[in-house]
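Appendix B. Worked example

We walk through a single record from start to finish. Start with the input: the chain for DUF2505 domain-containing protein, Gordonia amarae NBRC 15530, length 169.
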Amino acid sequence: MARRLSYSARYPYPAEQVYAAQSTPRYWDEMMAGFEMFSPKCEVVDFACDDSGLKVVLRQTIGRDQLPSLAQTVLKKDMIITREESLGIFDPDVTKGDYTASIPAGPGSLKGWQELFPTDSGCTLRKTSEVKVFVPFVASKLEQLMLVNLVDLFRAEAAYAKDWIAKNA
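Next comes the structure step. The output line below is what the pipeline stores for this chain.
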């Protein structure tokens, strides 16, 4: 059975400004460069922003020795995560998108939906993730572990976005 979790990043900036930041390759390149302090290799594999919206493909490598022991029992090599994120064209009411993450020979799947919308104090980017692990006996524990780590990732990305916009807008 899949598990779901929603995370909302609140920004003191208008939604259009957050969208504009994410619409630049430099935003993503600098974010991946910053993540290299945690993972040995982080890169932007592909980036596109056009009349249909934006799409970015990110790849991160996490050393097996950095993984929690439960994850090490399932994965015998370094974990290579490929994440695809998209947002449709900017809509002042709500801009919708989605994301997926995959691990070669990984024990499960991760997909999610995101919405960027205005609030009285700026805007919110809400991400709703669904995780499914296909390993008997440890599936629920791995799903919970993935969701907890995903929230940590989203928090770090939200902090990065706030800082990046403050410095570059």
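Two observations about the output. The helical segments are 15-22, 25-35, 69-74, 139-168. The longest helix spans residues 139-168.
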